[in-house]
Design goal:
The protein is built from 9 helices and 14 strands. The chain is globular and about 60 Å long.
């Protein structure tokens, strides 16, 4: 695979996730070469370029999109800029890997799908968790029948951030925990079950000052199972996913942010003992899920595979989120809109 010509990347913005996690991970991949980074603040772009060894820095997004040497764009901008700048990148003939959530709603996601189809480029949502081996092993365990028929999936993801300057706390920028991290248990439940929920019900608690949702809980009814999750933006940092079957239970202790420097474990419980005597731990060697995400996208650009999370999947995830927002207002079960 190393004989494949590396994809030449440009980065829209100097967001923390880009400079701390995604760009360094890309640079460790033989399939990727990060050529340029842009910010509306040229000094910020130059500082990021110098720190990361990126050859070119631009003081506007337009200059980056005009760079003929850049083939693919990584878009980690705030949520409300995902679709507008991804569409502009597509119109400039660039492939696009856009951070999650790919849009503010399903209608916006459809706009990006239409742009992709018109211009014939690769566009994907950056759900790095979908490339991590722990999740593929988890799906293999489920498919093997070891825990029986899956009837319930539960998830939780929380952190504590109340900085008014944080984009997560700007309601007009698509802030709030449902869009920020609620998207994770939704996408992984859909992926594990290989199905779409028929209806959802949810509740939100909003920050009285910022207006963003800071707590969210939802239940998703699938044809053969139920998925539930809770997410929080002003409570203790924690995450967990569990899959309950008729004969056993599968637990992912660090499902969404696994470390890249040490192994993680899956716990398979036969349910024979409430104190854990029936649990087998399956060790998954350390990997960088951001590097794997970049590899899979680069392979798709080179015609060697498919993007891990295509826009149709991203749009279906947004439809579920839309329905949860509607349910929080109506107090009723709501059906996700068909794509």
């Amino acid at each position: 695979m190393t004989s494949v010509e590396p994809v030449r990347w440009g980065v829209l913005g100097a967001a923390s996730i880009a400079v701390r996690r995604v760009v360094p991970a890309m640079q460790r991949s033989p399939l990727c070469r990060v050529e340029a980074i842009a910010s509306r603040d040229l000094a910020k772009a130059r500082a990021a370029a110098d720190a990361l060894g990126i050859p070119r820095a631009y003081g506007s997004y337009e200059e980056l999109l005009a760079d003929a040497d850049v083939e693919a764009i990584y878009n980690p901008l705030p949520n409300h800029l995902h679709v507008p700048w991804s569409v502009r990148a597509v119109e400039a003939g660039k492939h696009v890997l856009c951070e999650k959530p790919v849009a503010l709603n399903a209608a916006e996601a459809r706009t990006l799908i239409d742009a992709r189809d018109r211009h014939g480029v690769q566009v994907a949502e950056a759900f790095m968790v979908r490339t991590h081996p722990q999740w593929h092993r988890a799906r293999d365990v489920v498919a093997s029948g070891r825990i029986g028929e899956v009837k319930l999936i539960t998830g939780h993801f929380s952190y504590h951030r109340r900085d008014p300057a944080d984009v997560r706390n700007r309601v007009e920028w698509g802030g709030g925990v449902l869009l920020d991290v609620g998207c994770y248990p939704i996408t992984m439940s859909r992926w594990l079950l290989g199905a779409e929920p028929t209806e959802v019900i949810g509740t939100l608690e909003r920050d009285p000052e910022f207006g963003v949702d800071r707590l969210a809980a939802a239940m998703l009814r699938f044809p053969s199972a139920t998925a539930t999750f809770t997410v929080g933006g002003q409570i203790v940092h924690h995450q967990r996913m569990q899959i309950f079957g008729t004969h056993g239970r599968l637990e992912l202790p660090v499902p969404f942010s696994p470390p890249n420097d040490r192994a993680v474990r899956l716990l398979v419980d036969d349910g024979s003992d409430l104190f854990g005597a029936g649990i087998e731990a399956i060790e998954i060697p350390a990997v960088d899920q951001f590097t794997l995400q970049s590899d899979r996208f680069a392979e798709a650009v080179r015609g060697l595979g498919a993007v891990p999370v295509p826009l149709e999947d991203a749009g279906a995830n947004m439809a579920v989120i839309d329905a949860i927002f509607r349910s929080a207002e109506s107090g009723r079960w709501e059906a996700p809109a068909a794509s």
